[in-house]
Amino acid sequence: MSHTKTTGQTPRKAALASFLGSMVEYYDFFIYGSASALVFSHVFFPDAGAATGTLAALATFAVAYIARPIGSFFLGHFGDRIGRKRVLIFTLATMGGSTFLIGCLPSYSVIGVWAPILLVLCRVAQGFSAAGEQSGASSMTLEHSPEDRRGYFTSFTLSGTQAGLVVATLAFIPVAALPTEALYSWGWRVPFWASAVVLIVAMIVRRTLEEPPAFEEMKESQEIVKFPLMVFIRHYWGSFLRIVVCHLYATISTTVTVFGLGYAVEQWNISRSSMLWTIVISNIGQVVTIPLWAKLSDKIGRRPVFAVGALGCAASVFVYFWAITTSNWSLVVLASVLLGSVCYAAPNGVWPSLYGEMFDARVRYTGLAVSTQFANVPQGFLPTIAALMIGTGAFGWVPLAILLAVLCVLAAAAAFAGRETAHVPLKHLGRTSRTTAAAPAARVTTTL
Question: Model confidence over 315-328: pLDDT tens digits?
Fold first, then answer.
């Protein structure tokens, strides 16, 4: 504790604030995924037919991933200019408001085409907000953490994300068990309305957290740049490309939780509630294993932990889809735990520190936000691509599994493309010879 008192860092408080904030943000984000897979084709696209309606509902899920890169420019800019804390409060309020409004939307049968239009607008707001949540929470926690435990504390941002998925799925289990008429009329709305309660708790915790010392020191020394995006473009394009390829592993998540859910229910007659419980079990495991993998990365490095996990995903995704075709729920659970709790948790827990350590404090929020949100675009489209690629019969999933495996192998290779940063001091992170030389000029021409 003496360490945090002398440095002004509060790693535990920062980790808690990141955990709760991410849990709320991604509870909101993930209940939309469950609803788009199970409900929205009937509520908002009833005249499109079963297959077309499902594609249209999944396309509204993808819309947020288009909005996220746009949001990253704005939220990253202000996160580096006015502070991490204020932007993170804004992201919580935006996500919470748009999610509550989705629960209030009239159906297609009531207002016609305006129903899906309003749905898309709310989804855009969700995506805009999500663009700044993980990057801001990761930046803040990284800068609050002691040097030898940055990976561990920063990983709680992603533990919160997986906890949000757990709570979102638990919220949908009783809803999915409702009679069809109740589910499509009012039942699906309840999880969207319920998010307001948890939002209040997270907002209270986040408001009590102070800006990290690294940001306050930049303000005092007048190193805050006026246009962090320009510094990012000029000096960090290599880090941007590395992150985009590294993050291809994350296509596993949306494919499994959005497409895999519908695939198992519709083609292999596994009940909705059984598949929702599978997602819950896997992600409860991830809440536990994510900080353990991240703690290991503090000792042996970010790159090996990330790469081994990504390669594990490449292999275990075949096991996961095969298990679905058996219609044996126990096998599906075991395969899901292997894929999610064991393999996927490794890169998922390490990326906040691995990516964040590629940038210095002047552009860390911008660098993380822009890089990860452009990297996230494929995630939004993978469920739709999966629906188009999937074939019939026991091996119709193989082309999709091959695609996902290739993406994970590329992610593992990209993890080793740069230097290891686990043991580099915070003040030296992201400081290349070019950025160090450019710093004095940046202070003269582009500071506040």
Answer: 999 999 999 999 99
CATH number (domain holding residue 157)? 1.20.1250.20
Contacts of 120 (CB under 8 A, 6+ apart): 60, 63
One-letter amino acid for residue 217 of the chain: E
Residue 348 CA to residue 155 CA, distance in Å, equals 8
3-class secondary-structure state, position 225: strand
- What is the structure's pLDDT at 313? 97
Judgement on whether residues 95 and 192 belong to the same structural domain of the protein: yes
Helix residue ranges per DSSP H, 1-49: 2-7, 11-38, 40-43
DSSP tag of 149:
G
Tell me the residue range of the domain where 347 lies.
227-422
What does DSSP assign to residue 418? S
The CA distances from residue 175 to 105, 111, 115, in Å, are: 17, 24, 21
Residues 365-409: pLDDT tens digits?
999 999 998 888 887 778 778 888 888 888 889 999 999 999 999
By C-alpha distance, which of 362, 334, 336 is closest to 427? 362
Q: Are residues 200 and 240 in the same domain?
A: no
pLDDT at 362 over 80: yes
- Segments in 82-155 forming alpha helices (H): 84-104, 108-111, 114-144, 150-154
CB distance 45 to 360 below 8 Å: no
DSSP 270: -
Domain presence at residue 26:
yes
In this prediction, residue 7 has a pLDDT band, given cuts at 50, 70 and 90, of low
pLDDT of residue 257: 73
